[in-house]
TrEMBL record:
Cross-referenced Gene3D superfamilies: Vaccinia Virus protein VP39 (3.40.50.150)
UniProt keywords, alphabetically: Chloroplast, Methyltransferase, Plastid, Transferase, Transit peptide
Native source species: Brassica campestris
Protein name, UniProt field: Methyltransferase type 11 domain-containing protein
One Pfam entry name: Methyltransf_11
Length: 341
């Protein structure tokens, strides 16, 4: 996909009303510009009264309800460069609307609800708090070294070995947290687009701030911040080249639903890479461990994996093949792929 690198900040987009949603690119003055995946060009309008016809292009973003494409239906008054908190996207099929704010696009199913709220399990809700979101990259994640996690830079190098077949494509950094891996993926220049995805609004705010503080990240235009549910991904089926999930699998309310969604959005040959904790070996001798696991999962929503075979079965159940892994103590990095046609 041809690209023109224009450094800038991260703000949701402004385009002509009624146009299908093309691919993300970021331009100067804090404005997101959308660029189609093909070589065909799209003009970005600077006057809010303009309603130009834009060539339809298939993009990766989709409605999380019906999985069909989105179109821009409204934008704030004023020229390009104005605040984008009024930007709205609408599904071409079910007509559900989604909005963008200063830091991210909100593509969760319940986004925009005024009265309805839907609390998630504790293992999800804790990362939505401002305190944990602030601390995550300021000591919280660093403690994972005691579980055998090599550290973000080393984990990134390990993940690259699995991701080589999809270099040059797009990658979803699922449950991105404060964006430490999103920044590493963007800085590597190995991917055409990096989508930093999380359910936590506060984590995405931290991700936004860290991205804008990165002086050595010259290709910020490749990064898109999206709020979404891991079990209801807002991407078209078969449109994603790779999904990465660092230290997240054990926090997902339903790992099987999440892996099935990841399999749905991956193109044939697409790669899934994840890291988590695994409690096997001497832990297998702990009496009633399986029963204890069920109680922990019931009250916290956090999952405890007890064997490599369990994780392999999880990938197979979600439609992924070629399971492989690397171990270091409680740490495991696993990879599986979407079967090629």
């Amino acid at each position: 996909m041809p690209m023109t690198v224009v450094p800038g900040r991260f703000t949701p987009a402004i385009l002509s009303i009624g146009s299908p949603l093309p691919s993300f690119k970021y331009a100067a003055r804090g404005v997101a510009v959308f660029v189609p995946r093909s070589a065909a060009s799209i003009s970005v309008e600077t006057n809010s009264s303009v309603d130009s016809v834009v060539e339809k292009e298939k993009d990766i973003l989709a409605c999380p309800i019906c999985y069909n494409s989105l179109a821009l239906i409204s934008k704030p008054n004023g020229l390009v460069g104005s605040a984008a908190s009024g930007t709205q996207l609408q599904c071409n099929t079910c007509k559900k609307s989604y909005s963008g704010n200063e830091t991210h696009l909100d593509l969760a199913v319940a986004s925009g609800s005024n009265q309805y709220t839907e609390p998630m399990p504790l293992s999800t809700e804790i990362f939505r708090t401002p305190l944990v979101s602030f601390l995550y990259e300021r000591g919280w994640r660093q403690n994972f070294i005691w579980g055998g996690f090599p550290g973000p830079e080393k984990e990134f190098e390990m993940a690259k070995d699995y991701l080589k077949p999809v270099f040059g494509g797009n990658i979803i950094d699922a449950s991105c947290g404060s964006g430490m891996f999103s920044r590493l993926f963007a800085r590597s220049e190995l991917f055409s687009r990096v989508v930093a995805l999380d359910y936590s609004e506060n984590m995405l705010k931290q991700c936004y701030d860290f991205l804008n503080q990165e002086e050595n990240l010259t290709n910020k235009e490749k990064v898109v911040l999206v709020r979404a549910d891991i079990a209801r991904l807002p991407f078209l089926s078969g449109s994603v080249d790779a999904v990465h999930a660092g230290a997240a699998l054990h926090c997902w309310p339903s790992p099987s639903s999440a892996v099935a969604e990841i399999s749905r959005v991956l193109r044939p040959g697409g790669v899934f890479v994840a890291t988590t904790f695994i409690y096997d070996g001497p832990f297998s001798f702990i009496p009633f461990l399986k029963n204890l696991r069920q109680e922990l999962m019931r009250y916290s929503g956090s999952h405890i994996f007890l064997s490599e075979r369990e994780l392999e079965d999880l990938c197979k159940a979600g439609g992924l093949v070629g399971f492989t892994r690397v171990r270091n103590g409680l740490f495991i990095m696993l990879s599986a792929t979407k079967p090629s046609r």
